[in-house]
Amino acid sequence: MPAKGKNRKNMKKLLVILTVLATAACLLPSKAQVLEDTPPVDNFYKKENTFDREPRPYVHVREADVFIKWRVWRMVDFRMKMNQYLYYPVEPVQDRISLMSLIMKGLQDGTIVAYDPLTDDFRKQLTYEEFISQNTQIRELQKEDLDNPGQFITSMDTSSFQIHNVKMIRLKEDWFIDKQRSMRDIRILGIAPVIQVFDDESGQFKGNQTLFWLYYPSVRSLFAKTEAFNRHNSAMRQSYDDVFAWNRWFQSYITKIDNQQDRQITAYAQGANIMREAERIEEMLFEIEHDLWEF
Questions:
Q1: CB within 10 Å: which end of the chain, N or C, has fewer?
Q2: Mean pLDDT of 205-233
Q3: How far apart are the first and last CA of the chain?
Q4: How does pLDDT run across 208-218, given as a tens digit for each residue?
C-alpha cells in the first residue's frame, strides 16, 4: 500500500479516537461529585419525639402500702399472632427494629447489661463477648471423600448464635395490690430471651434454653427511645417500654407463680393440663382483685 494511503488511514483512526475522548469528556461533570454527609430523611416529616423520649416514671409505692403481692413468671411466644410484631423484621429495616435486634444492639454497645441465665436474681453479670463465646459451638464432622470412596475427611463446623432463633421471651414480674391507690398494679422485673434446643442428630425437641436475663428497670431507657411496629397506624407507634411496662400489648401464658416448692407448672402438670393450670392461675389473680374491692 502507498505511504500516502497508510497515512490517510491512520489519520481517520486518530480522528475517531479523539472524537470518542471528546464525547466522554463532555459527559463527565465539570467538577468532582460531593457526597452528602447524611442521607436524606426517609419520611415527609422529621421524627423528633421518639429519640429523646424518657420512660414514664412509675408511681412510688411504699412497703406499707403493698397489701398483697405475687411473683409471676410468664412466657411471651413471638409465634402467636398478636406477638409477631416483636419478632419482625428479622433484620433492621428503615425505622423498624425487632425486640431481639434491639436487645443485642444494646448489649454490643454497652447500653444495657446482661445477667447469667442460670438464676434470675441478677447477681452475676454476663458480657457480650462471654455470651457469644458460650453460644458458639465447634464440632468435628466426618465427610466421605468423593474422590476416594471409603476414606473420610475431617472438617470443622462452627455454629454461633443467630437472632432469628429467638422466638420467645420470659418475663419475671410482681403483681400487687396497692391499698393507698386501691388498685392492682404490675411491675416487670426481668426479661429473658429463650431459644428452643433440638438434638443435632434426631432433631427431637430437648427443651427451652434461657440465654440471659435483663433487669427490666435498667433497660427501660433504651426501650422508651425505640418504636414498636403498629400494624393499624404507623403514625401512632408506641415505644417498647409502653408495650411492656404500661399497655402490656402482648399475649402470654404463666409458667410459674410463687410456691412453697419453687416449682414450674411443668413439674406437676403434663400435656394440655399445663395450659389449664396457667389459665387457672391467671383467673385466680383477677378474681382476688375483684373480690377484694367488692362490697
A1: C
A2: 94
A3: 120
A4: 999 999 999 99
Cis amide linkage into residue 117, ω under 30° from 0: no
* Residues 6+ away with beta carbon under 8 Å from 11: none
Chain centroid to CA 131: how far? 15
Higher pLDDT, residue 107 or 12? 107
Rounded CA gap, 102 and 255, in Å?
25
Which CA distances in Å does 294 have to 57, 81, 275, 283?
30, 35, 28, 16
| DSSP 8-state secondary structure symbol assigned to residue 63 | G
Q: Which residues are within 8 A (CB) of 250 and not within 5 positions of it... i.e. 6 or more apart? A: 76, 82, 83, 86, 243, 244
Say how many CA atoms lie within 13 Å of 195 toward its Cβ: 14
pLDDT higher than threshold 70 for residue 14:
no
- What is the pLDDT at residue 286? 87
Beta-bridged to residue 166, according to DSSP, are: 195
Q: What is the dihedral of CA 158, 159, 161, 162, to 10 degrees?
A: 120
Neighbours of 189 (CB within 10 A): 17
Q: pTM of the predicted model, to two decimals?
A: 0.80
DSSP-assigned letter for residue 33: P
Alpha carbon of residue 161 to chain centroid: 13
Set of cell numbers at residue 137: 459451638
Residue 254, C-beta contacts closer than 8 angstroms, at least 6 positions apart? 72, 73, 74, 265, 278, 281, 282
**pLDDT tens figures, 101-145:** 999 999 999 999 999 999 999 999 999 999 988 887 655 556 666
